[in-house]
Write the structure tokens for this entry.
Amino acid sequence: MQKNIYLYLFVFAALVALYLLFSSRNLQKTMDGRVVNLTEKVAALEDSLQAEKLRVLDMQYFSLENNDDALAYYDHLKLENPTSYITDKLLETNERKGDNPLIPYAGMESDFKINKIKVLNHKWILADFSDGKYWGDLIIQYELKDDLGIDFTLLDHLLYTRSE
């Protein structure tokens, strides 16, 4: 009887070992497939990230921060960040009651105010304006003086028409 118990235990242990062997092989195959899939996803995301970095560099080409020649015009002023200073001064023109004086249109829904600003170099600015419903773009020339005053001159403007 004791002989049969050992035989049954041996057969049972062998069956458990075979089950564990085959299930671990299947688990290993599944995990290897997941690793390959995730590796492919990481490679695709790295390529996408690299493409976005190049796109951002292209978008930053026309900006004061990345133009050393234009920044050299402001070295003597000792401004830490000329772009922020210029942007703040342009946004101060919004503080007047009514339409912004640089925008040559009367607001239709409310007052036209400048929203977004892109300082291109040491002379020009692109700006977006809106009254909440209508919007447009401006090209502004500016001059930053030695006393840190700024003169803004409107060069061109565009008001988008709504097509309804």
Notes: The chain is about 45% helix and 20% strand. Residues 1-59 form one domain. The mean pLDDT is 87. The longest strand covers residues 135-144.
